[in-house]
Amino acid sequence: MDKLETRKRISLLQTKADLLRLLNDLKVDDLQENAYPIPMKVINFYCNPAHEKRYRSFSIPKKTGGQRIISAPCRGLMSILTYLNVMFEAMYEPAPCVCGFAIGKSVVDNANNHVGKNYVFNLDLKDFFPSIHQARVWARLQTAPYNMKKDVANVIAGLCCMKSDDGRFVLPQGAPTSPILTNMICERLDRRLTGLARRFGLNYSRYADDITFSSMHFVYSADGDFMKELNRIVSEEHFSLNAQKTRLQKNNVRQEVTGITVNEKANVTRQYVREIRQLLYIWKKYGYNDAYSKFYPKYKAEKGHVKKGEPVLENVLSGKLLYLKMVKGEEDSTYLKLRKQFDKLSGNTIIPKPASDEFKYILTYDLSNFIAENSINPFKLQILRAIASGNYEGRMELNGKFMPVFLSKGVLKQLKSVEQGDRSDMWECYISLCESTKGRFWLIHRGKHDEATHNPAPQKTISQIIDVWAKKGLEKAKEVFENVHYPMGDSIDIKAILDIWEEKGADAAEQLYEQYVNRN
User: Do 369 and 429 meet the contact criterion of CB atoms below 8 Å apart?
Assistant: First the structure.
């Protein structure tokens, strides 16, 4: 069913039964013979936002600190919301200033609106999703261009909203319909802020709750006309600004819009490129195991709360390179060089898939080294259950989070003594990242797999030492350099790089580093 036909069907909706027929037709169009029809009793149950079991709420850490509350719909409701979202996408046409949750738009489009400006002014709408009440959704669906009947709008608003802890009925952050509904609600806000920007000669864009203005001239004083009008419009549209996330960036510092640098062109940060280059360098110089051991702890600390299972280094690097390509362009020399290195390395490091009843060891650590590298202190292990193979399923704490592990039959005695404080038997235990047809997992065992065992020396790479300089100063970086053991053949003069960084800046140091990497 194409967009025009979907729009026509929506314009003819009169009752809840009409809505259900359309949802089921969209589901059949999507899943074909695998589509099971949604019954009316399911719609009747889920359209009451007072039911408490419709959403599961949990928190995840924010990059800037604090916790973000996510409310995920249950499976039955998710199916309904998925096809409601198809309806919304057929109806909603985003304004040019809207870059978030709009088909064909991205963070790069948002950033490109503000490249090369003297001033970039970032604002954030406070408590964006929970500030939109069910009554606003219900009212918006009945106005142009949606023009839904009252009863239909009432059912849809009930399906798309949830009861918050304070008793209000609001849009949940975590439902597939919430992002596009916020855009629909914000259409008048976008019109008014676009007009405000035009009046003062500014550029304006919005990505979800992130609002950005930019200009060559200054109009952002707290008591100026622009700020007074901005605060008035935001307040009249029933939103509020988050003062802690309001920032004015001049062109003499790094200007960022939705995570992308915009001083001269849309670009990623140096740190982003450095992390990719660093992992590729370690992979090439010391092998896949060393690269994985460098990558794994940081990835789990940053993404472990939202990503299930064990990460695949090749997939993560490929995703990072695709993002780099999206931002810098497919002809960018930095992207092409890193992509070439990655393709060569990943082509040489293909891990064959095991047979259905087998698994393959990818890399293995002494358990004691693994604990030391990943800061698991104190050592915490919980046995959950015995499984059919005679082994055990458990979980072990890693960086404050519990990760699932499997344990072989002979390992429990040693680990119990470790848990009680006697670590003498820990040297006889190993932990391996393994892969089966079902995915990757960790296994604690006694036998040592020499071809995969990985016990890296406590080395630091060039980029790590440069990072120490950036965070703690040149003297600390030199101290780290003097106390680090480097493998034979690693003849890079890190002190020279640090001296050049101090004398000529980061770009010159990066060039010298790249020359060394290319030489090797």
Answer: no
Going by C-alpha positions, the residue among 280, 366, 352 that lies closest to residue 316 is 280
How confident is the model at residue 399, as a pLDDT?
Answer: 61
**CA neighbor of 135 nearest in space, from 154, 159, 163:** 154
Residue 441 tokens read as 């997992």
Report how far residue 71's alpha carbon sits from residue 82's, in angstroms, rounded to the nearest whole number. Answer: 15
The reported pTM is 0.73
Q: Kindly report, residue by residue over 312-328, the tens digit of the pLDDT.
A: 888 899 999 999 999 99
Greater confidence (243 vs 68) lies with 243
Long-range pairs for 237-241: beta carbons < 8 A, 24 or more residues apart: 237/186, 237/188, 237/189, 237/192, 238/131, 238/136, 239/125, 239/126, 239/128, 239/131, 239/189, 240/125, 240/126, 240/127, 240/131, 241/123, 241/124, 241/125, 241/126
Q: How far is CA 358 from the centre of its chain?
A: 32
DSSP-derived pairing of the beta strands 439-445 and 401-407: parallel
Give dist(CA 461, CA 282) in Å, integer: 8
According to DSSP, residue 224 is labeled: S
3-state secondary structure of 52: helix
| Ramachandran angles phi, psi of 210, nearest 5° | -95, 115
pLDDT band at 414 (very low <50, low <70, confident <90, very high): low
Would you state the structure tokens that stand for residue 300, as one six-digit string? Answer: 């789990």
Token pair listed for 387: 């499984």
Contact 120, 164 (CB under 8 A): no
- Identify the pLDDT of residue 48: 87
Q: Could you tell me the pLDDT band of residue 502, with boundaries at 50, 70 and 90?
A: low
CB 92 within 8 A of CB 183: yes
How many helices and strands, by DSSP H and E, does the chain display? 20, 16
List residues bridging with 385 in a β-sheet: 393
Report the alpha-carbon distance of residue 78 to residue 176 in Å, rounded: 8
